[in-house]
Protein backbone atom coordinates (compact mmCIF):
# COMPACT_ATOMS: atom_id res chain seq x y z
CA UNK A 1 0.00 0.00 0.00
CA UNK A 2 1.58 3.26 -1.17
CA UNK A 3 0.54 6.45 0.64
CA UNK A 4 1.51 9.99 -0.36
CA UNK A 5 1.60 12.57 2.44
CA UNK A 6 1.28 16.16 1.25
CA UNK A 7 3.18 18.38 3.66
CA UNK A 8 6.37 18.05 5.72
CA UNK A 9 5.45 20.07 8.79
CA UNK A 10 5.09 18.43 12.18
CA UNK A 11 1.64 17.05 11.24
CA UNK A 12 2.84 15.64 7.92
CA UNK A 13 6.04 14.07 9.29
CA UNK A 14 4.29 12.44 12.24
CA UNK A 15 1.67 11.12 9.80
CA UNK A 16 4.43 9.66 7.64
CA UNK A 17 6.06 8.00 10.66
CA UNK A 18 2.91 6.33 12.01
CA UNK A 19 1.84 5.15 8.55
CA UNK A 20 5.30 3.79 7.71
CA UNK A 21 5.43 2.06 11.09
CA UNK A 22 2.38 0.08 10.02
CA UNK A 23 4.16 -1.27 6.97
CA UNK A 24 3.02 1.22 4.35
CA UNK A 25 5.22 2.57 1.58
CA UNK A 26 5.18 6.34 2.17
CA UNK A 27 6.20 9.34 0.06
CA UNK A 28 6.26 12.87 1.51
CA UNK A 29 6.01 15.89 -0.79
CA UNK A 30 6.77 19.47 0.24
CA UNK A 31 7.78 22.68 -1.52
CA UNK A 32 10.48 23.49 1.04
CA UNK A 33 14.00 22.02 0.98
CA UNK A 34 13.77 20.90 4.63
CA UNK A 35 10.99 19.62 6.85
CA UNK A 36 9.39 22.04 9.33
CA UNK A 37 10.25 25.13 7.30
CA UNK A 38 6.90 26.92 7.61
CA UNK A 39 4.41 26.85 10.53
CA UNK A 40 6.55 24.37 12.51
CA UNK A 41 9.73 26.41 12.06
CA UNK A 42 9.71 28.77 15.05
CA UNK A 43 6.46 28.28 16.93
CA UNK A 44 5.91 28.74 20.66
CA UNK A 45 7.38 25.35 21.50
CA UNK A 46 4.88 24.54 24.25
CA UNK A 47 3.25 21.12 24.57
CA UNK A 48 0.40 22.44 26.63
CA UNK A 49 -2.79 20.48 27.32
CA UNK A 50 -3.03 22.76 30.37
CA UNK A 51 -3.76 25.64 28.02
CA UNK A 52 -6.28 23.95 25.70
CA UNK A 53 -8.75 26.82 25.70
CA UNK A 54 -10.39 27.59 22.38
CA UNK A 55 -9.81 31.05 20.94
CA UNK A 56 -13.52 31.29 20.09
CA UNK A 57 -14.77 32.63 23.41
CA UNK A 58 -17.33 35.24 24.49
CA UNK A 59 -14.49 37.78 24.88
CA UNK A 60 -13.04 37.26 21.38
CA UNK A 61 -15.50 39.45 19.36
CA UNK A 62 -14.77 42.46 21.57
CA UNK A 63 -11.02 41.97 21.23
CA UNK A 64 -11.29 41.76 17.44
CA UNK A 65 -13.44 44.89 17.33
CA UNK A 66 -10.99 46.86 19.50
CA UNK A 67 -8.09 45.69 17.32
CA UNK A 68 -9.44 47.76 14.40
CA UNK A 69 -8.23 50.87 16.24
CA UNK A 70 -5.73 49.40 18.72
CA UNK A 71 -2.91 47.38 17.16
CA UNK A 72 -1.68 46.16 20.57
CA UNK A 73 -4.58 43.70 20.94
CA UNK A 74 -3.58 40.02 21.10
CA UNK A 75 -6.20 39.13 18.47
CA UNK A 76 -5.73 41.50 15.54
CA UNK A 77 -8.10 41.88 12.59
CA UNK A 78 -6.84 43.48 9.39
CA UNK A 79 -9.76 44.06 7.07
CA UNK A 80 -9.42 42.92 3.47
CA UNK A 81 -11.66 41.82 0.63
CA UNK A 82 -10.91 38.09 0.87
CA UNK A 83 -14.35 36.38 0.94
CA UNK A 84 -12.86 33.26 2.53
CA UNK A 85 -11.79 35.32 5.55
CA UNK A 86 -15.31 36.71 6.03
CA UNK A 87 -16.91 33.26 5.76
CA UNK A 88 -14.41 31.92 8.28
CA UNK A 89 -14.95 34.85 10.67
CA UNK A 90 -18.71 34.31 10.59
CA UNK A 91 -18.24 30.67 11.57
CA UNK A 92 -15.73 31.70 14.25
CA UNK A 93 -18.20 34.17 15.76
CA UNK A 94 -20.86 31.45 15.87
CA UNK A 95 -18.50 29.51 18.15
CA UNK A 96 -17.97 32.43 20.52
CA UNK A 97 -20.81 31.54 22.89
CA UNK A 98 -20.10 30.24 26.38
CA UNK A 99 -21.61 26.84 25.55
CA UNK A 100 -19.69 26.36 22.29
CA UNK A 101 -16.50 27.52 23.99
CA UNK A 102 -16.97 24.92 26.73
CA UNK A 103 -17.64 22.11 24.24
CA UNK A 104 -14.74 22.99 21.95
CA UNK A 105 -12.32 23.40 24.86
CA UNK A 106 -13.34 20.04 26.32
CA UNK A 107 -12.83 18.28 22.97
CA UNK A 108 -9.52 20.02 22.47
CA UNK A 109 -8.33 18.97 25.93
CA UNK A 110 -9.05 15.28 25.30
CA UNK A 111 -7.09 15.38 22.04
CA UNK A 112 -4.16 17.31 23.54
CA UNK A 113 -3.79 14.96 26.50
CA UNK A 114 -3.91 11.92 24.24
CA UNK A 115 -1.40 13.46 21.87
CA UNK A 116 1.04 14.33 24.64
CA UNK A 117 1.00 10.68 25.70
CA UNK A 118 1.83 9.62 22.13
CA UNK A 119 4.61 12.23 21.94
CA UNK A 120 6.17 11.03 25.18
CA UNK A 121 5.94 7.44 24.02
CA UNK A 122 7.55 8.23 20.66
CA UNK A 123 10.28 10.33 22.28
CA UNK A 124 11.19 7.50 24.64
CA UNK A 125 11.06 4.81 21.95
CA UNK A 126 13.21 6.65 19.42
CA UNK A 127 15.39 8.64 21.79
CA UNK A 128 14.55 11.90 20.01
CA UNK A 129 16.39 15.04 21.10
CA UNK A 130 14.66 18.41 20.79
CA UNK A 131 15.73 20.39 23.88
CA UNK A 132 12.73 19.16 25.82
CA UNK A 133 11.93 20.53 29.29
CA UNK A 134 9.33 18.55 31.26
CA UNK A 135 8.90 20.58 34.43
CA UNK A 136 5.47 22.09 33.89
CA UNK A 137 4.33 25.50 32.64
CA UNK A 138 3.16 28.75 34.24
CA UNK A 139 0.10 30.72 33.10
CA UNK A 140 0.71 34.06 34.78
CA UNK A 141 -1.63 36.97 35.53
CA UNK A 142 -0.66 40.56 36.26
CA UNK A 143 -3.71 41.76 38.23
CA UNK A 144 -6.26 40.33 40.64
CA UNK A 145 -9.25 40.63 38.31
CA UNK A 146 -7.69 38.69 35.43
CA UNK A 147 -6.27 36.14 37.89
CA UNK A 148 -9.76 35.56 39.25
CA UNK A 149 -11.13 35.08 35.72
CA UNK A 150 -8.33 32.65 34.96
CA UNK A 151 -9.20 30.55 38.00
CA UNK A 152 -12.84 30.47 36.94
CA UNK A 153 -11.94 29.44 33.40
CA UNK A 154 -9.59 26.69 34.53
CA UNK A 155 -12.51 24.67 35.87
CA UNK A 156 -13.25 23.50 32.31
CA UNK A 157 -9.81 21.88 32.21
CA UNK A 158 -9.76 20.63 35.79
CA UNK A 159 -13.18 19.03 35.26
CA UNK A 160 -11.55 17.25 32.30
CA UNK A 161 -8.90 15.71 34.53
CA UNK A 162 -6.04 18.24 34.32
CA UNK A 163 -4.12 18.96 37.49
CA UNK A 164 -3.79 22.73 37.79
CA UNK A 165 -2.27 24.45 40.83
CA UNK A 166 -3.08 28.02 41.83
CA UNK A 167 0.02 29.97 42.93
CA UNK A 168 0.34 33.38 44.54
CA UNK A 169 3.20 35.69 43.53
CA UNK A 170 5.63 34.09 45.98
CA UNK A 171 4.68 30.65 44.72
CA UNK A 172 5.31 31.74 41.14
CA UNK A 173 8.81 32.95 41.97
CA UNK A 174 9.52 29.75 43.90
CA UNK A 175 8.65 27.79 40.75
CA UNK A 176 10.49 30.19 38.43
CA UNK A 177 13.21 32.24 40.16
CA UNK A 178 13.94 34.12 36.91
CA UNK A 179 10.72 36.08 37.55
CA UNK A 180 11.93 37.48 40.88
CA UNK A 181 12.72 40.94 39.53
CA UNK A 182 9.20 41.19 38.05
CA UNK A 183 7.37 40.39 41.29
CA UNK A 184 5.45 43.68 41.30
CA UNK A 185 3.87 42.71 37.97
CA UNK A 186 2.65 39.29 39.15
CA UNK A 187 -0.70 38.72 40.84
CA UNK A 188 -0.42 34.95 40.60
CA UNK A 189 -0.37 32.07 38.17
CA UNK A 190 -1.91 28.74 37.30
CA UNK A 191 0.76 26.06 37.18
CA UNK A 192 0.28 22.90 35.11
CA UNK A 193 2.90 20.37 36.27
CA UNK A 194 2.44 18.04 33.27
CA UNK A 195 2.95 20.61 30.49
CA UNK A 196 6.24 20.66 28.58
CA UNK A 197 8.27 22.57 26.04
CA UNK A 198 10.62 21.67 23.20
CA UNK A 199 11.73 22.78 19.76
CA UNK A 200 9.14 21.54 17.26
CA UNK A 201 11.50 22.09 14.34
CA UNK A 202 14.23 19.96 15.93
CA UNK A 203 11.69 17.25 16.71
CA UNK A 204 10.23 17.25 13.20
CA UNK A 205 13.59 17.13 11.45
CA UNK A 206 14.86 14.40 13.77
CA UNK A 207 11.74 12.34 13.09
CA UNK A 208 12.09 13.00 9.35
CA UNK A 209 15.53 11.39 9.50
CA UNK A 210 14.04 8.38 11.27
CA UNK A 211 11.44 8.24 8.51
CA UNK A 212 14.19 8.19 5.86
CA UNK A 213 15.94 5.38 7.68
CA UNK A 214 12.64 3.48 7.74
CA UNK A 215 12.31 3.80 3.94
CA UNK A 216 10.08 6.85 3.60
CA UNK A 217 10.74 8.66 0.31
CA UNK A 218 10.96 12.45 0.34
CA UNK A 219 10.26 14.75 -2.59
CA UNK A 220 11.44 18.04 -1.12
CA UNK A 221 11.82 21.32 -2.97
CA UNK A 222 8.82 20.10 -4.97
CA UNK A 223 5.76 22.31 -5.38
CA UNK A 224 2.30 20.75 -5.43
CA UNK A 225 0.33 22.22 -8.33
CA UNK A 226 -2.96 20.36 -8.15
CA UNK A 227 -4.68 17.17 -7.08
CA UNK A 228 -6.35 15.24 -9.89
CA UNK A 229 -9.59 13.34 -9.21
CA UNK A 230 -11.35 10.76 -11.35
CA UNK A 231 -14.81 10.04 -10.12
CA UNK A 232 -14.77 9.48 -6.38
CA UNK A 233 -11.04 8.76 -6.15
CA UNK A 234 -7.79 10.71 -6.39
CA UNK A 235 -5.80 9.69 -9.46
CA UNK A 236 -2.58 11.69 -9.03
CA UNK A 237 -0.86 14.66 -7.46
CA UNK A 238 0.70 16.95 -10.06
CA UNK A 239 3.96 18.49 -8.89
CA UNK A 240 6.89 20.43 -10.26
CA UNK A 241 8.67 17.06 -10.55
CA UNK A 242 5.80 15.52 -12.52
CA UNK A 243 2.73 13.49 -11.50
CA UNK A 244 2.90 11.26 -8.43
CA UNK A 245 0.48 8.38 -8.04
CA UNK A 246 -0.36 6.24 -5.02
CA UNK A 247 -3.07 4.08 -3.49
CA UNK A 248 -3.99 6.69 -0.86
CA UNK A 249 -3.26 10.34 -0.18
CA UNK A 250 -3.07 12.44 3.00
CA UNK A 251 -3.68 16.19 2.87
CA UNK A 252 -1.58 17.80 5.61
CA UNK A 253 -0.66 21.19 4.20
CA UNK A 254 -1.83 23.39 7.06
CA UNK A 255 -3.12 26.77 5.90
CA UNK A 256 -2.67 25.75 2.27
CA UNK A 257 -4.92 22.68 2.51
CA UNK A 258 -8.09 24.60 1.54
CA UNK A 259 -6.43 25.96 -1.62
CA UNK A 260 -5.56 22.48 -2.91
CA UNK A 261 -8.94 21.09 -1.83
CA UNK A 262 -11.21 23.70 -3.45
CA UNK A 263 -10.89 22.41 -7.04
CA UNK A 264 -12.02 19.02 -5.72
CA UNK A 265 -15.23 20.54 -4.36
CA UNK A 266 -14.23 20.97 -0.72
CA UNK A 267 -14.71 24.07 1.38
CA UNK A 268 -12.43 23.34 4.33
CA UNK A 269 -13.10 25.78 7.20
CA UNK A 270 -9.43 26.62 7.66
CA UNK A 271 -7.96 30.10 7.51
CA UNK A 272 -4.41 31.33 8.25
CA UNK A 273 -3.89 33.29 11.43
CA UNK A 274 -0.48 34.92 11.53
CA UNK A 275 1.71 34.63 14.60
CA UNK A 276 5.03 36.27 15.46
CA UNK A 277 8.03 34.87 17.29
CA UNK A 278 11.45 36.21 18.21
CA UNK A 279 14.33 34.10 19.51
CA UNK A 280 17.36 35.36 21.44
CA UNK A 281 20.67 33.72 22.36
CA UNK A 282 21.42 33.04 26.02
CA UNK A 283 24.97 33.63 27.20
CA UNK A 284 26.99 33.57 30.39
CA UNK A 285 25.58 35.92 32.99
CA UNK A 286 22.01 35.82 31.69
CA UNK A 287 19.13 34.70 33.91
CA UNK A 288 16.64 32.99 31.60
CA UNK A 289 13.56 31.11 32.75
CA UNK A 290 13.52 27.33 32.79
CA UNK A 291 9.78 26.76 32.73
CA UNK A 292 7.71 27.69 29.69
CA UNK A 293 4.82 30.02 30.29
CA UNK A 294 2.32 32.60 29.14
CA UNK A 295 1.83 36.21 30.22
CA UNK A 296 -1.96 35.96 30.08
CA UNK A 297 -2.63 39.70 30.15
CA UNK A 298 -0.49 40.28 27.06
CA UNK A 299 -0.83 36.76 25.58
CA UNK A 300 2.93 36.52 25.22
CA UNK A 301 4.35 33.00 25.53
CA UNK A 302 7.93 32.08 26.31
CA UNK A 303 9.98 28.90 26.14
CA UNK A 304 13.64 28.05 26.53
CA UNK A 305 15.47 25.74 24.12
CA UNK A 306 18.97 25.10 25.44
CA UNK A 307 20.90 28.35 24.89
CA UNK A 308 17.96 30.10 23.19
CA UNK A 309 14.94 31.93 24.60
CA UNK A 310 11.85 32.42 22.42
CA UNK A 311 8.82 34.67 22.79
CA UNK A 312 5.66 34.36 20.71
CA UNK A 313 2.56 36.52 20.49
CA UNK A 314 -0.28 37.89 18.40
CA UNK A 315 -3.00 36.28 16.31
CA UNK A 316 -3.40 38.39 13.20
CA UNK A 317 -6.15 37.82 10.66
CA UNK A 318 -4.38 39.15 7.56
CA UNK A 319 -4.53 36.39 4.95
CA UNK A 320 -1.43 34.62 3.63
CA UNK A 321 0.98 37.50 4.23
CA UNK A 322 4.02 36.47 6.31
CA UNK A 323 5.90 39.76 6.02
CA UNK A 324 7.06 41.39 9.24
CA UNK A 325 9.11 44.30 10.53
CA UNK A 326 10.82 44.95 13.89
CA UNK A 327 7.90 47.20 14.85
CA UNK A 328 5.54 44.19 14.86
CA UNK A 329 7.50 42.69 17.77
CA UNK A 330 7.63 45.77 20.02
CA UNK A 331 4.60 44.95 22.24
CA UNK A 332 5.79 41.42 22.99
CA UNK A 333 9.34 42.59 23.67
CA UNK A 334 8.15 45.21 26.15
CA UNK A 335 6.38 42.47 28.10
CA UNK A 336 9.31 40.05 27.73
CA UNK A 337 11.94 42.48 28.99
CA UNK A 338 9.72 43.53 31.88
CA UNK A 339 9.44 39.91 33.01
CA UNK A 340 13.02 38.82 32.29
CA UNK A 341 15.23 41.96 32.15
CA UNK A 342 18.40 39.85 32.01
CA UNK A 343 16.90 36.81 30.34
CA UNK A 344 18.92 36.80 27.11
CA UNK A 345 21.00 38.91 24.74
CA UNK A 346 18.31 41.35 23.63
CA UNK A 347 20.62 42.84 20.98
CA UNK A 348 20.47 39.71 18.78
CA UNK A 349 16.82 39.06 17.85
CA UNK A 350 15.88 36.41 15.30
CA UNK A 351 12.46 37.49 14.00
CA UNK A 352 9.93 35.17 12.34
CA UNK A 353 6.26 35.11 11.38
CA UNK A 354 4.20 32.09 10.37
CA UNK A 355 0.64 31.04 9.59
CA UNK A 356 -1.46 28.98 11.96
CA UNK A 357 -4.07 26.85 10.12
CA UNK A 358 -7.12 27.66 12.26
CA UNK A 359 -10.59 26.17 12.20
CA UNK A 360 -13.45 28.13 13.82
CA UNK A 361 -13.66 25.54 16.61
CA UNK A 362 -9.84 25.34 17.04
CA UNK A 363 -9.92 21.57 16.58
CA UNK A 364 -8.37 19.84 13.53
CA UNK A 365 -10.06 18.03 10.64
CA UNK A 366 -9.19 14.35 10.54
CA UNK A 367 -9.97 11.22 8.58
CA UNK A 368 -11.95 10.36 5.50
CA UNK A 369 -13.11 12.71 2.76
CA UNK A 370 -15.70 12.33 -0.01
CA UNK A 371 -12.99 10.78 -2.18
CA UNK A 372 -12.41 7.20 -1.12
CA UNK A 373 -8.61 7.40 -1.06
CA UNK A 374 -8.09 10.95 0.24
CA UNK A 375 -7.63 11.49 3.98
CA UNK A 376 -7.25 14.67 6.02
CA UNK A 377 -4.92 15.63 8.85
CA UNK A 378 -5.01 19.40 8.85
CA UNK A 379 -6.30 22.53 10.60
CA UNK A 380 -4.34 22.13 13.86
CA UNK A 381 -4.29 25.86 14.57
CA UNK A 382 -2.01 27.22 17.29
CA UNK A 383 -1.51 23.81 18.96
CA UNK A 384 -0.17 21.71 16.11
CA UNK A 385 2.95 20.81 18.10
CA UNK A 386 0.81 19.60 21.00
CA UNK A 387 -1.68 17.74 18.77
CA UNK A 388 0.63 16.27 16.11
CA UNK A 389 1.41 12.80 17.43
CA UNK A 390 -2.15 12.19 18.53
CA UNK A 391 -3.72 13.22 15.25
CA UNK A 392 -1.16 11.18 13.30
CA UNK A 393 -2.02 8.08 15.36
CA UNK A 394 -5.74 8.74 14.86
CA UNK A 395 -5.19 9.15 11.11
CA UNK A 396 -3.29 5.84 10.91
CA UNK A 397 -6.00 4.09 12.90
CA UNK A 398 -8.77 5.40 10.64
CA UNK A 399 -6.86 4.52 7.45
CA UNK A 400 -6.41 0.98 8.74
CA UNK A 401 -10.04 0.55 9.71
CA UNK A 402 -9.51 0.79 13.44
CA UNK A 403 -11.50 2.83 15.92
CA UNK A 404 -9.41 5.67 17.41
CA UNK A 405 -8.59 5.55 21.10
CA UNK A 406 -10.49 8.80 21.75
CA UNK A 407 -13.79 10.29 20.64
CA UNK A 408 -13.19 12.51 17.59
CA UNK A 409 -16.67 14.02 17.43
CA UNK A 410 -16.35 17.50 15.94
CA UNK A 411 -12.97 16.70 14.33
CA UNK A 412 -14.05 15.17 11.03
CA UNK A 413 -15.14 16.63 7.71
CA UNK A 414 -18.72 15.80 8.61
Automatic annotation (TrEMBL):
One example GO MF annotation: D-amino-acid dehydrogenase activity
Coiled-coil boundaries: none
InterPro entries referenced in this protein's UniProt entry, alphabetically: FAD-dep_OxRdtase, FAD/NAD-bd_sf
Gene3D superfamilies: D-Amino Acid Oxidase, subunit A, domain 2 (3.30.9.10), FAD/NAD(P)-binding domain (3.50.50.60)
Record key words, sorted: Oxidoreductase
SUPFAM superfamilies: FAD-linked reductases, C-terminal domain, FAD/NAD(P)-binding domain
GO cellular component, one term: cytoplasm
Keyword Oxidoreductase: yes
A Pfam family hit: DAO
Enzyme superclass (EC): oxidoreductase
Domain FAD dependent oxidoreductase: 3-398
GO terms classed as biological process: D-alanine catabolic process
Enzyme Commission code: 1.4.99.1
Family classification: Belongs to the DadA oxidoreductase family.
Protein name (database record): D-amino-acid dehydrogenase
